[in-house]
UniProtKB/TrEMBL annotation:
Annotated ranges, domain Polysaccharide pyruvyl transferase: 16-284
The UniProt record lists the keyword Transferase: yes
Annotated protein name in UniProt: Polysaccharide pyruvyl transferase CsaB
Keywords on record: Transferase
GO molecular function term, any single one: transferase activity
Keyword Transferase recorded: yes
Species name: Crinalium epipsammum PCC 9333
Top-level taxon of the source organism: Bacteria
Database matches in InterPro entries: Polysacch_pyruvyl_Trfase, Polysacch_pyruvyl_Trfase_CsaB
Length: 349
């Protein structure tokens, strides 16, 4: 098999730790004969961090020239084909895939979390884009069922970030243990009242456990202000970690006893390191993860109104909850390699 150049498109270079973790995971699984070209919101940052070629994802001429230079386009992974945040997402990614197909490129949709697709237009765009793909993998049953309804074949496997190689975090082990990570995000349903309730519960939880709280904004542009507001209320040891390298972000959870998280990939990273996890779900992908690996938690709109109740639930899980064991984690990692195997097979055709 000769040298191949593959374009990579996703929500890359936008300061989101989860999407950067997906990019790092895809780069990790590429065969040696594949040269990546990443479409990024911050090409310089992407080039410097991953030592790859990169272009501006929103510069039409750069994207056109990039696609013309490639043999394949890899879209992955995550919740790209959804219109809950914007109609532009499926139109942008669907358009890219359509152009790539017209140019004769192999198109591979990797580790997709499809939907919600509320608009007939975005539904049509997504169906057309996936229908023309050389190969598709998804990370959840709902996405697999949707493609099945459309008559499109796919493979399902756990998120590739389960297999992402972590990097050590400098000075982490100098921070007093035990450590509890908190990875919340802004959301319309995370109202000031709910934030206050969770913060009061966290203060009492820390007092009872004498833990060090690590606040982890996965997307600092939207999460950091929330982390800072919580930090001002904490009475015990605490740190805010804004880690740009997703491999270090995953490495952070190697030193954590328990994680309270809204962020999907924070929960995966933590669970992958035998950390007790408690989820607060704002999105179907988090709820599906909770169901698939029996992770305790609440739907965001169902958070108790009493901080004492929240504290007691967290204390019970901290004392008696069970993390995934080594065999369960290895099984998830092994199954996540389906993404890599299908990618290699599709590129070698």
């Amino acid at each position: 098999m000769g040298q191949i150049k593959a374009g990579l498109c996703g929500y890359y270079g936008k300061g989101n730790g989860g999407d950067e973790a997906l990019l790092a995971s895809v780069l990790q699984m590429l065969p040696e004969n594949v040269t990546p070209l990443v479409l990024s919101g911050n090409p310089k940052e992407t080039r410097d961090r991953y030592q790859v070629e990169s272009c501006d994802r929103m510069d039409a001429m750069q994207v056109w020239q990039a696609l013309r230079s490639c043999d394949a386009l890899i879209m992955g992974g995550g919740s790209l084909m959804q219109d809950a945040t914007s109609l532009r997402n499926p139109i942008y990614y669907g358009g890219l895939m359509g152009i790539a197909e017209r140019l004769g490129l192999k198109t591979i949709a990797l580790a997709q979390g499809i939907g919600p697709l509320n608009s007939p237009i975005t539904n049509w765009v997504a169906k057309r884009a996936f229908g023309g793909c050389t190969a598709i993998t998804v990370r959840d049953r709902a996405s697999a069922f949707l493609l099945q309804e459309w008559g499109i074949s796919c493979m399902m496997a756990p998120d590739p970030v389960w297999n992402l190689e972590p990097s050590p975090v400098e000075n982490l082990w100098d921070i007093p243990a035990p450590r509890v990570a908190v990875a919340l995000r802004s959301h319309p349903q995370l109202t000031p009242e709910r934030i206050d309730c969770l913060t009061r519960a966290l203060v009492d939880f820390q007092t009872a456990t004498q833990t060090t709280i690590l606040l982890v904004p996965f997307q600092p542009a939207s999460d950091l202000a929330l982390a800072q507001s919580i930090q001002t209320q904490l009475r015990g040891a605490n740190h805010i970690f804004c880690l740009e390298d997703p491999r270090k972000l995953k490495g952070l959870f190697q030193g954590v006893e328990m994680t309270i998280g809204m962020r999907y990939h924070a929960l995966i990273m933590a669970a992958a390191h035998e950390c007790k996890c408690f989820a607060i779900s704002y999105d179907p992908k988090v709820s599906q993860l909770m169901a698939e690996i029996n992770m305790p938690g609440w739907e965001l709109e169902q958070i108790p109104h009493d901080p004492n109740e929240i504290t007691q639930v967290w204390l019970e899980h901290y004392a008696n909850g069970d993390p995934l064991n080594t065999a369960q984690i290895q099984a998830l990692i092994d199954r996540s390699l389906i993404h890599r195997d299908l990618l290699v097979a599709a590129l070698s055709k």
